[in-house]
Amino acid sequence: MIETMTWPLDADGDMLRILAERDFDFDTAHNIEFYVEFDAWPLTQKQQTEISSILPQASYVEPNEEDELPGHVLIIVNSNVTHEFVAAEQKRLSNIVSNIGGFCNSWAVCSPCGT
């Protein structure tokens, strides 16, 4: 079992502790969804072109008013789920889009937990 006490006391560490409580398999690679949000939505065609040239796997997700979710760019990366990886990937994505008003500070993993 993963030692949960080593995770920092931040939002990412909290998410990892929740996953550990649900018997998440940290030894296997999973599809991790990173949500890149922007100061203004919808994005212009120029912004979309710039993002797609750097992140060709990007998907554009329109706002979902029912769930109160903002429009965002979705990036899916297959990797082991570690604090180091999710923190570094959020920083990397934020650096890529910061010049056009974007930031990444949230993620999710779509995988069954437990048995």
Automatic annotation (TrEMBL):
* Domain Regulator of ribonuclease activity B positions: 10-107
Q: Which SUPFAM superfamilies does its entry note?
A: Hypothetical protein VC0424
Q: Which InterPro entries match?
A: RraB-like_sf (IPR036701), RraB_dom (IPR009671)
State one Pfam family annotation.
Answer: RraB
Q: Which domain of life is it from?
A: Bacteria
- What protein name does the entry list? Regulator of ribonuclease activity B domain-containing protein
Q: Which organism is it from?
A: Pseudoalteromonas luteoviolacea S4060-1
